[in-house]
């Protein structure tokens, strides 16, 4: 994990009580909001492709390693004002929200496209019962 992301996650944990579970819960809620606003995994894929990140998205949907994205690339998927809205909704600084999304989006898209296609995911943005908090715990909680 990069030094900045590590520091951002420590800041997040400090703001919301210091517990790993709480930090991961906030990360999961933030991720869920991003998916809902985009219309689900299909929307995330479409927005990322429109932002010129098609090669990275294909790595998330396909088998093999997920290519990472940067915080700047997240702001190409979600405009800064939308990031600020997500951040305010979940009580974190916009810079922390962007770093969390950069870290979790590849894993979340990968998790919702296990057969290599987004066709089976619900179109309503709900995630179809996808465990955003569990994913955040796995990748942010440090356990």
Protein architecture, described:
This protein has 143 residues and is an all-alpha fold. The protein has a single domain, classed as Arc Repressor Mutant, subunit A (Orthogonal Bundle). 67% of the residues lie in helices and 0% in strands. It is built from 8 helices and no strands. Helix 1 crosses helix 2, helix 2 crosses helix 8 and helix 7 crosses helix 8. The longest helix has 19 residues. It is globular and about 35 Å long. The two termini are 14 Å apart. About 6% of the residues have low confidence.
Helix and strand layout, with pairings?
Elements: H1 3-15, H2 20-38, H3 41-50, H4 54-61, H5 71-77, H6 80-90, H7 94-112, H8 132-140
Cα-atom Rg, whole angstroms? Answer: 14 Å
Largest sheet: none
Tell me the number of strands: 0
Helix content: 55-70%
Instruction: Decide which structural class fits the backbone.
Output: mainly alpha
Provide a brief overview of the structure.
With 143 residues, the protein is mainly alpha-helical. The chain has eight helices and no strands. It starts with a helix and ends with a helix.
